[in-house]
Amino acid sequence: MPLFEYPELAFTQVTLLVVSGIWLMRRNDEVPLLISSFLFYVASYRYWAVTHGINHWVNLTWLGLSSVTREAALEALACIVFGQICLLSTYMWNQKRILPILNSTDVNPNFLQWLRPKVIFFSLLCLPIVVITRSQVFIQLSTGNSLAFQISSYLYLFPLALVGIATIVLNLWKFNSFNSLINKIFAILIIFCIFVLTFSSTGRFQFMGWITAAGIILSSSYKPKTRMVIIGAFLVVAISLFALAGAMRNPNLPDNRLNQIAWERASSAEDANMLDGFVLLQNVYPQRLDFQLGMEHLEILMRPIPRAWWPEKPVGGYMNKLGLTIHGGKGTLGISPSLFGSFYAEGGIVGIFILSLLYGVILAKIVRYTTKLQPFAAILVRAILCASLLPLLRGGDLPGIYAWIGMAFWPCFLLLWIKRADFRLKSFASISMY
């Protein structure tokens, strides 16, 4: 018999959601609310949707994995809630600062004048390069090359730079850098092209990334109550369009049914199957694979090494480690187990406990660091952090997730590094507190 039943676990997640909302109201810090909202949707809500017949558990028995049962899902839900408590409590204990309401006029106009033309030029240069690289990947796939083992990840992941480009453009817009008609036309054109290139069934997390960053940036100058509404609206739109892009996977689906299918996917948590992934992972560790004991995180340093230089480089994800492939060995399949599933693979319940505390401390230090930066850099870092939390909380192949973050936001990281001296906070005079 499980130690905790579903009502207790769901109540705990709802309580954490409420506490996170209060935290935003009192400290203007959106990180706990974003974490709690995501985990509630993929854990408690997912369990409720399946057990009430709205959806069904993921079935990978044809790959030799055990089926997902209600009892196993309840055990996985308890592990996620335990990790969430450890993560949030550690974060809140270490991040007690009230984040300032950023003043969008508090920025050096010379810096904006320096940055704006470079961003416009770089964006217009990258857009056609993204189209070319995608076509090259498609050509290699059509000739039978494996996306997982034969196609360069740098080539495949380069289009993720659109997320970072969109983040910088939106930040410039928020700080009134596009002050002429021609500049505004360029900015709108760039964002429109990024929307078109990222809104697809294969680029959904790209789309979610920069939409989340947009919500954080555009709400940054408002009071917490208004910020909560704006961020919530952006997340609802993002989830809706994410589900719509998922529905577009079926090319035979009539256009007049797309909206209905998208609504069904969103309301039934069709794409939020991380609870299922956690159960599948628990059936693998430690029965079929030994706990990673930190190797999952160590592989983050090994992942940038091209496989052409190191053909025997260890593969990521337990599916690859077990040799479970699809399409004649040309592709791999995996169900994300949430971040706490990745922690479980490192060391079971002990791994969840230790790594949740560690991640809580790191996230708190990043947010506290933003209070030492000029407003432009502060909101840029927080937008990057919140956008990165979505794939990170989704979990799975952690080295691949960190590679996603690096390839998505390298334009932002480059800017932060080049202007690191100018971004240090020198005066608090024009930062508004509430």
Q: What string, H for helix and E for strand, traces the elements in order?
A: HHHHHHHHHHHHHHEEHHHH
What is the radius of gyration computed over CA atoms, rounded to a whole number of angstroms? 22 Å
User: Strand content of the residues, in percent?
Assistant: under 5%
Distance N to C terminus: 49 Å
Structural class: mainly alpha
Total DSSP helices: 18
Number of domains: 2
Residue runs with pLDDT of under 50 for 5 or more positions = 327-331, 427-434
Strand order in the sheet with the most strands: 1-2
Query: What oligomeric state is this?
Result: single chain
Q: Please state the average pLDDT score.
A: 85
How many β-strand stretches? 2
What would you call the shape?
globular
Largest sheet: 2 strands, antiparallel
Fraction of residues in H or I helices: 55-70%
